[in-house]
Design goal:
- The protein is an alpha/beta fold.
- The chain contains twelve helices and 15 strands.
- Helix 1 packs across helix 12, helix 4 packs parallel to helix 5 and helix 6 runs parallel beside helix 7.
- The two termini are 15 Å apart.
Length: 377
């Protein structure tokens, strides 16, 4: 059993897939027999900026702009906690926040004999900032300047890509995992036997490529497609994306009754929409942010649920699976007729799809990290 500090540089939201993933990772480590403490940054009920460990305040930075600066620079309390509690491994999650103070913190950990790894959820990530606000782009510039020196203090970088080295540091390559307890099995309840319902679940960004599905729908109907095809988008859509990307496509092709925006859904409401649908939409635009290989969480959630799906990146866990359609990694509209033909031929039951990803349980994936850290005797 190891004593592990899981370090997160932000707070949590009940509506966030990232938040859920982190809690599932912690759960997976604990189910593997490890003593895991979750350290994160958030606001107290009084509005103070605080660093917490498992719900208890470790450090109260106060309020105001000065407190905001302090939380970025002050890690002494975390270091002292690690020494006091005998923490053996710090597992951090990248927040594109490399700076001299964070580098000093990890250097002190290394000098104290405490191992450390950082998970970089998406690599490379620089192109994802292309359309972000100037403050976020400025933060990326700072990160770019200091990240190589930061990762020199680590044992390794955890990645879901196939990169053997990231920012000068060796990698531990794992897959995004799944928590089987939290994802129910797909139970399709059709409206009619002839309709096709597609579902895409995401906090929608350009790299999800949902516009390719909408353009594909438009072209399908321009060619006098006879099947009624509906695209259910579940998750937040930025107003700029809706106004400048989705709405012009929908209006041009008259898809107002074919593309349905549900907003963010959870639990029974989310399950109900899934169970209306026969086929799911993964990422179709990762090439837009310069990514070729990635093991996305969404692909694994779809497979755990037991619904077939499409995506365009390279993902070794799914590229050859019979319940997957691969789209080209380009700007071409998605071939809706190909999806229709696939669904009409598809007979694999949800239980069998789910069984194919049992090895992707978070308990197994997180233990791979533990096994590959260079433990010194």
């Amino acid at each position: 059993m190891l004593k592990i500090l899981f370090l997160v540089y932000h707070g949590f939201s009940a509506h966030s897939g990232i938040s859920k993933k982190i809690h599932y990772q912690v759960k997976g480590l604990r189910e593997g027999g490890h003593d895991v403490r979750l350290c994160y940054y958030d606001f107290s009920p009084e509005g103070h900026r605080c660093r917490y460990i498992d719900g208890r305040v470790l450090q109260d930075f106060g309020s105001g702009w000065l407190a905001g600066l302090r939380q970025r620079f002050s890690y002494d309390a975390v270091y002292d906690y690690c020494r006091r509690e005998g923490i053996e491994l710090v597992y951090a999650r990248c927040f594109q926040n490399a700076n001299p103070w964070l580098t000093r913190f990890f250097r002190r950990l290394r000098e104290a004999g405490i191992h450390a790894v950082t998970e970089i959820p998406t690599y490379p990530y620089d192109d994802e900032f292309r359309n972000f606000e100037w403050k976020q782009r400025l933060g990326l510039k700072v990160d770019q300047f200091f990240r190589r020196s930061l990762y020199q203090q680590m044992d390794a970088v955890v990645t879901f890509s196939d990169a053997e080295e990231i920012f000068g540091q060796k990698t531990i390559r794992i897959s995004n995992g799944v928590d089987f307890d939290s994802i129910p099995l797909h139970q399709f309840s059709p409206h009619t036997s002839s309709d096709l319902h597609l579902i895409g679940v995401a906090e929608v960004h350009a790299w999800h490529g949902f516009d390719r599905v909408m353009k594909g729908l438009g072209q399908y109907y321009e060619r006098n497609g006879q099947c009624k095809v509906y695209f259910h988008v579940v998750g937040g859509v930025h107003p700029n994306t809706m106004t400048h990307v989705f709405r012009p496509i929908i209006e041009h092709y008259h898809l107002q009754d074919r593309v349905i925006f549900h907003g963010t859904l959870f639990d029974a409401e989310l399950d109900a929409v899934f169970n209306q649908c026969q086929f799911a939409i993964g990422s179709l635009g990762r090439h837009r942010s310069g990514i070729t290989v990635i093991k996305t969480l969404k692909n694994r959630e779809y497979a755990t649920r037991g619904i077939p799906f499409i995506y365009s990146e390279q993902d070794a866990d799914f590229d050859s699976q019979p319940y997957v359609l691969k789209a080209p990694a380009d700007e071409s509209p998605i071939d809706i007729q190909q999806i229709i033909d696939f669904v009409q031929r598809f007979t694999m039951p949800p239980e069998e799809i789910r069984k194919s990803v049992e090895h992707l349980a978070w308990t197994i994936q997180m233990q791979q990290v533990i096994d590959q850290v260079a433990w010194k005797q």
